[in-house]
Every structure is written in C-alpha cells, then in structure tokens.
Design a protein that fits this description.
FBPtase; eight-stranded mixed sheet; binds 2,5-anhydro-1,6-di-O-phosphono-D-mannitol; cytoplasm; globular; about 350 residues; metal-binding; five-stranded mixed sheet; fructose 1,6-bisphosphate 1-phosphatase activity; binds magnesium ion; magnesium; 8 helices; alpha+beta
Length: about 350
C-alpha cells in the first residue's frame, strides 16, 4: 500500500472526518490546484515557451503586466468558471470582478487571486507563486437572486474559508489551509500529483531573521525605522542578539521561508505614496498569507490591528503587512504603540 497522502485524500478527510469543508469547496480547491500545475508548466518552460518578458500592458494599479501574469490569470479563470462552485472571481490583474458567465451554473463561493506573485522575479529565474483566497457569498435569504457584485467580496479576512499559495521554485509546493492548520503538498512531476509532505506546519515563536526591502528605509515611518535600527545593532543593541536579513522580493518565497524556519516579513506603509496604506493588496496577498501564518501559530498585523480584522472598502485595497513569528510580530506591534 502506498503510504503517501494525495491532495484529494487530504481534502476528503477534511470533509469527512473533520467536517471542515463541503464537497463544493473541495472541488474548488482541487481545480485551483490543477490550474497551478498548468501555471507551473509555463513557468518551467521559461524562454522556451516564449512566456518571459512584458505583455506591454498595465494593471489597474499601473504596474507593468508580464506575459506570465496574464497567462496565469487566464489559466485560473478558464479552470474555474465552468465547475458550478463559484459565483465570481477577482484578481490583482483585473480591474473589476469576473462573474461566472450565465451559460454556466452559479455556485456560492468567491475566488480571489494574485495569479503570479513576485512578477519582478519571473525573468530572472527566481521563485514566484500564485496566491489564492476563498470566501463564501453572504446570502441569508435564499429567495434573493441579485447579481454578484464587488460588494460581495468586501469581507474581512477572518471570513475566509480556504486560502493557499503555490510556490514555483526548485520544488513546486502547494500550501493550504481550510482552518484546520497548514498542510504542504509537493508536486510529483512524474505522476502530476500533489503529495502531502508536511502537515500541522508550525512557525517558531521567536526569530532573529527579518525580511524587508531595506532600500526603502528613508521612506518608512518612525516605528519601523526604530525596529530595524535596533535589529541592526545586533547583540550590542537593545535586542541583545544578532539579526540576519533575507529579502527575495516574492512574497510567496519570503512567507515560505518563514513557514519553514521562522522569521518576520514587513512591507510597511511608506512616504512615497502617503495616501496608500501600503504596497501589498489586502484581498489577494495579505489576507490569505495572514491566515496561513496564523494557522501555523504565527501572527499577522498592520502594526495597528490584526490583518484579518481589516474591513475592506475596495477590491484592490492595499495594506501595511507585518507577519511571521508570533513574538517578533508582537514586539513590532509594541514598537508601533510606543510611537502612537
Ligand atoms: P506583485 O504581486 O506585482 O509581484 O507585487 C508584490 C510583490 C511581493 O511579492 C513582494 O513582497 C513585493 O512585491 C516586492 O516589492 P519590492 O519591489 O519593493 O521588492
Ligand atoms: Mg503579488
């Protein structure tokens, strides 16, 4: 007997034994995982598949879109629109929501994604990924059949029913939570199957490793500057220990390292764009990653509040992100309180 657990078996056990997920949600997650396999194939082909470089367009945030950003977006939409489990999708790469076309049955779930996170790393062969989040459309009145709208997506991260990411690195790994801890599945390329390689992932509570884009230091607010200053002073400074720094510039890769060995990741508000609360997107990046990190025993905060409690007002809303090892995140939150 093969002792290995496939993604399908893991999900069926979550459904049957733990009663965590209804069959439609299981199907949805399997379809997303299948789409990630297709994206992985394109990522692996690189120059041979003519998938590198810019697409010559910009997204709603004014960021240049890479060919792979658009390919990954298409793959996720095509894979998910016909299954009958979704009402609509929203993506970092699309201006508005994508309602499931009328020719297909409508489901009750909403799928949100950053199809290709870490776009700046695509062309330099560094790890990138797909991040996704699943919400349930809130509809207490079964007789209400209003068309799905952007407002349906504006739910706090605490409402998520599934979240995950797929990292395309030396290995292709799917990391998933349905609210019962965090599981990791490695893609076995020969058979094209996801194999459970770690369950009950736990982030160490303490760390001496931080991840932040240091080139933005002069733009940060006082609490973040103070925190990093203290870390840089090493064992002679107020923290009394030496810190290491890592920055991949793909959130999936930085979070994956933190899930594997601890650490803290910061993308704080900065003065360059004073009216935006940060660079990263609440619905496609901060919420799914925040929930995964919490489910692995870590913490995720804006500096002022728990990320999962932020009430979104717009689809592409941005947020300041501090996540990782619990005690270190709590220390950074205290740095913010000291300056409040
Ligand atoms: P993207 O979704 O367009 O790739 O942008 C998000 C990425 C994150 O993965 C990463 O943490 C950050 O942007 C990197 O930003 P910087 O260019 O400041 O290093
Ligand atoms: Mg991103």
């Amino acid at each position: 007997m093969n002792p290995r657990t496939s993604l399908t078996r893991y999900l069926i056990e979550q459904q049957r034994v733990h009663g965590r997920i209804p069959p439609e949600l299981r199907l949805l997650i399997e379809v997303v995982a299948r789409a990630c396999k297709r994206i992985a194939i394109s990522v692996n082909k690189g120059a041979l598949g003519e998938v590198l470089g810019s697409a010559g367009s910009a997204n709603v945030q004014g960021e240049v879109q890479k060919k792979l950003d658009l390919i990954a977006n298409e793959v996720l939409i095509e894979a998910n629109e016909w299954g009958g489990h979704l009402a609509a999708m929203a993506s970092e790469e699309m201006d508005g929501i994508y309602a499931v076309p009328n020719r297909y049955p409508q489901g009750e779930y909403l799928l949100l994604f950053d199809p290709l996170d870490g776009s700046s790393n695509i062309d330099v062969n560094v790890s990138i990924g797909t991040i996704f989040s699943v919400l349930r459309r809130q509809n207490d009145d079964p007789l209400r059949i209003e068309p799905v709208a952007e407002a349906d997506f504006l739910q706090a991260g605490a409402q998520q029913v599934a979240a995950g990411y797929c990292i395309y690195g030396p290995q292709t790994t799917l990391v998933l939570t349905v609210g019962n801890g965090v599981a990791m599945f490695t893609l076995e390329r020969e058979q094209g199957s996801w194999v459970l390689t770690q369950d009950g992932v736990q982030i160490p509570e303490d760390t001496s490793e931080f991840a932040i884009n240091m080139s933005n230091m002069r733009h940060w607010d006082a609490p973040v500057r103070r925190y990093i200053d203290d870390c840089l002073q090493g064992r002679e400074g107020p923290r009394g220990k030496d810190f290491n720094m890592r920055w991949v510039a793909s959130m999936v890769a930085d979070v994956h390292r933190i899930l594997s060995r601890g650490g803290v990741f910061l993308y704080p508000w900065d003065k360059r764009e004073p009216h935006k609360p940060g660079k990263l997107r609440l619905l496609y990046e901060a919420n799914p990653m925040g929930w995964i990190v919490e489910q692995a025993g870590g913490a995720a905060s804006t500096g002022q509040q728990r990320i999962l409690d932020v009430q979104p007002h717009t689809l592409h809303q941005r947020v300041s992100v501090i996540l990782g090892s619990r005690n270190e995140v709590e220390h950074i939150v205290r740095c913010h309180q000291a300056f409040a």
